[in-house]
Each structure stands twice: as C-alpha cells, then as structure tokens.
Amino acid sequence: FIRGTFPHHARSWGPSRTRLPDVDGWRALSDRPGRAGAAPVELRKESLAKSSWSYFAEVLGNSGLAGRNIRLQAGELLKVIDLCAASSAMTHAGHPFCSTLAFDRVELLVPCCHGDLVHMDARLVSVGNSTMVVQVLGRKRDILTRQWVYTHEAFATFVSLGADRRPAQVDQIKLKSEEEMKISNYIKSRQLLTHTYIKEQEALEHSEMSLEEIEKVSTKFRDNISMEESTILLRKNFLPRNLNGIGTIFGGDLLEWMEGAAILCASNFTRNSHVVTIAMDRVLFKTAIRVE
User: What is the pLDDT of residues 190-201, one digit of tens each?
Assistant: First the structure.
C-alpha cells in the first residue's frame, strides 16, 4: 500500500467493479433438484466507487489563535473525520441512518493548528453485506508555501441501518483501477490482522505473568507505577445535541472524549503535560449508547 498512489483530488478517484455470478449462474442454482418453484435470487446492485465521494473544507479550531502554531486537540480533528466519513457512507447507502462501527486506523502525521484551513476527502473503499469502509485523506493549507500538506489518514467502518434499526444491505462497489484494487486488498489484510489481534488479546486475558517475569520487567525502569495508580475516572453528561440521526451518541463526540481521557492518562503517567496523540488503532464501538 503506497500513499503516493493517491490522487490529489478526490474527483479523480476511479470507479471499481466487484465480480458477481452472472444471471445464468443464478438460474443454474435455482434449477437444481429440490428447488422447483423457489423464488429467484435478487442480485445486489452495484455503484461506482467515485459516486460515494465526499469532502470537507473548513477552518478548524479557534480562528483567534491563528498564526500562533497552537496545536489543535486530536479529539476535535477526529470528530471532523467521523463527520466526513459518515457523509460518504450515507451517500452510498442512500439514507442518513448509518452508525459508526469502528475506526481501524488513524495516523496523524502532521499537526493541525488552530486557524488552519483543512480539506478532507472521503471515499468508499470496501463494503460487506451492511458495512462500509471509508477512507479519509486530509491535508492543510500551508500559509508560507501556499501549498497543500498531507496531514492525516483514517479508515472508518459504518453500518447501514433499516427502518427497524437492524443492519440493512447496501450496494456493492465496482473496482476497476489498479489503485482501487490495491486499497481493497489492503483493507482485507487489515481485517485478517484484526481477527488475529482479537484472538491474541483473548488468549492474554486468560494467562498470568509469573513473579519472575514481573520482576524482570519492573527492574528496567527507574520509576514504578501500578495500573490502578494510572487509572483516570471521568464522568460526562451528553445532551440531545450530541445525538446522531438514529438517537444514539454521535461517534465523533465519543472519539473526542476518549482522546481527551487518553491524553490525561498519559500525562499523569509520564508526569508531563506536553503529550499529543499521533495515532489510533482498532477503536471498536461494540454497543450503541443512548441518552436516558
């Protein structure tokens, strides 16, 4: 997977095609013995990948702090990434009832500061039965060089919901260009890694470290702190304005809150207030949160 292959403008993202059995193939299945009178199988529709393209362009943060090189909190940037990705997912699904399911990977390569003009392009790169993986590429306008600087990249997964708030099937996407094939294969490899990672974490939960292993690890550092001592307890009240179109807490607000908590925990652990977020990996929203 090479970042340099990405086009500068999202409009140049080419269409793609997913192979499906032809009509004769479906007829052969329906003509098998024991399937007489069976209802015909409906083919899933296909949509061009470029038809899901969406973009976001806005001055982020406090414009009064522009020009002071004050770094924007990553949580605020994550909220905007989620909004941009959701717009692409909703465009493909054809309705606004799409919920954030996971953030597979987020890389914040160049800091965005208050007052920066940030442009984000989002496109659909992979679909399941009801899930949609959206890639978001971000860049900011550098004032001194008057050039666009590549700043961040993220992959977010959304699920399409029907009128009964159950997962609803979405159209497939067509993959044609070589670049689209590469990114699709990359997403599949990331999904395999995620399954492996989950299995490894489940295995670690049922294993215990021996006293010798603990002493060996603890002697490598000058200062020792237990996990309980590094724990930060927060409580936040969400308002109706934090709800999305399906009545649950907006994923971007949750990401912003989680990132702030992580920064506070890391600062407490390192005794250093100068801590920044540079990446996120495998953030899963397992259960929807509603305001009671």
Answer: 878 877 877 877
Give DSSP secondary structure letters for 153-185.
Answer: EEEEEEEEB-TTSSB----EEEB-SHHHHHHHH
pLDDT band at 214 (very low <50, low <70, confident <90, very high): low
The model's pTM: 0.70
Nearest CA-CA partner of 134 in 10, 12, 239, 277? 10
Using the structure block, give the residue that is written with the tokens 């990331």.
190
pLDDT confidence tier of residue 221, bands split at 50, 70 and 90: low
From 64, 58, 100, select the one nearest 80 (Cα to Cα): 58
Distance CA 132, CA 156 (A): 8
d(CA 285, CA 166): 16
Please report how the helices 251-270 and 74-93 are oriented relative to each other, as an axis angle in degrees rounded to 10.
Answer: 150
Q: How far is CA 244 from CA 72, 125, 157, in A?
A: 24, 23, 16
